Amino acid sequence: MIESFLLAIGEISNVYSLTLIFVGVVFGIIGGAIPGFTVTMAILVVFPFTFTMTPVNGISLMMGVFVGGYSGGIISAVMLGIPGTPSSITTIYDGYPMSRNGEPGRALGIGILSSFVGTLVSILILVTLGPLIAKFSMNFRPWEITALIIFALTLVSSLSNGAILKGLMAAAIGLFITTVGFDRNNTLRFDFGFTTLSSGFEILPVMIGVFAFTQLLSNIESSRSNTNIAPVIKRLPYAQVASDVFKQKINLIRSSLIGAFVGALPGTGGEISNFISYDQAKKLSKESDKFGQGYPGGIVASEASNSAVVGGSLIPTLALGIPGDLTMAIMMGVLILHGISPGPMMFEQNPILLGSIYASLMIGAVLMLICQLFLIKWFAKIAAIPQAILIPTVLALCAVGTYALNNNIFDIWVLLIFGIFGYFLFKMNVPLSPLILGIVLGENFEHQLYRALELDPNWHTFLTRPLSATFLILAAASVLFAYLQSRKTRLMAQASL
């Protein structure tokens, strides 16, 4: 493997291949930063350009977009409070408050460095343990993935900021939203007579509407009361950023491992790993009360796990020929287009091409770090743009990104309606994070639960399979921990009176 990796380095160590990686990284960063555009959309745009390329060059371009796209979401998350991609949702919780507190450069720097380390960790795991993890991931059938999603749903308690009942209500609304449209038995549900609702709601318009409109309307209120003061752009604190990330080294490695592992499971993705990493970082931190207020550990957990999905998601695609999501299906299409079949034999038949994938990822991560740090001063200046210019510009970008999903005007209406709905929830002090959690996980949860019960209608199967039982036990432990933590906080508050 080491020999193949070194040969692959030689294959892509030319101006053309390196330029392709660089172009891919830049385009991926831009795509990830535009709310609603997503990594998948960026890869779909680039995919046709690989038709006339050699396999190595085509892979180089796609890997660049892949790495850049997953890191690009931090820009809009930190500077605007709007997730550029679904997997950068938890970056908002601490990145945006830190930016509002006058430290946008610090927030971006922490996220970029954490993203870089997360990518490197995932590449290391991909190179050394890829086939082994791929074989283990085959044990994750519908029962295990359903139990994993249930475990992720128990994170509502830690995302509710003390308002657990309101958080549960928001999560329930989110799950309900995903049931609109046809189910797996082709039964139409909750369409209320509107034919446009028969296909359900796209996740991204709903998510962007809830986050973007709430944040934009909140900014308008702040600007009217003259309390919204743009943070001063200071000299970028590189030493402080390095110190912040180093202090979170355990959190950094743990979150990277979670991202790589969850990314390697077919049918999961960056969203689940994001929420799990953030939750674990908060629960295991000695300063858990600082999360959500601009705490470096929250940014580290979110961005490290987010970018570690890059290497993790390639594991089942390359080793087993099983793409975990649409992005990986497109990556498989590039390989098949050039006459290469992903799977166990690829490691023996195409070792140099496999090494070029690893090398492209590594070079892409380095170029991503350089590009982001070079442009960080310009990104930070977004915070100084007057609200009268920034708000309509962001709104237009959200509308364009939403429309680009399906070229459907209805998606823009969805964005507007859920934006207003999210704003009313915000004004009633209902936490929005559980709502998004329910929306992000709801469709996959129903799909996996249906598959599990179709294969075996006996509910006891969830408890007799070791992995699914383990996740259910972890879910119960998570709920118990949240209850005890809430009770402890309440007792401490009463004692202080």
Beta-strand content estimate: under 5%
Give the overall shape. globular
Mean pLDDT: 79
Tally of extended strands? 2
Discrete helix count: 22
Broad structural category: mainly alpha
Determine the oligomeric state from the structure: single chain
- Main pleated sheet: 2 strands, antiparallel
Supply the number of structural domains: 1
Radius of gyration: 22 Å
Order of helices and strands: HHHHHHHHHEEHHHHHHHHHHHHH
| Strand arrangement across the biggest beta sheet | 1-2
Low-confidence stretches: none
Assign a percent range to the helix content. over 70%
Spatial separation of the terminal alpha carbons: 64 Å
InterPro entries: DUF112_TM
Transmembrane segments: 20-47, 59-82, 107-133, 163-182, 194-217, 318-340, 352-376, 382-405, 412-442, 462-484
Keywords: Membrane, Transmembrane, Transmembrane helix
Domain DUF112: 18-437
Notes on the protein architecture:
The protein has 497 residues and is mostly helical. It has one domain (2-488). Helix content is 74%, strand content 1%. It has 22 helices and two strands. The chain has helices at 2-12, 15-33, 38-46, 55-80, 91-100, 104-137, 142-153, 156-159, 164-177, 203-224, 238-247, 249-263, 270-284, 296-320, 326-337, 346-349, 351-380, 387-406, 409-427, 433-455, 461-464, 466-496; strands at residues 181-182, 188-189. A two-stranded antiparallel ribbon has the order 1-2. The N and C termini lie far apart (64 Å). The mean pLDDT is 79.
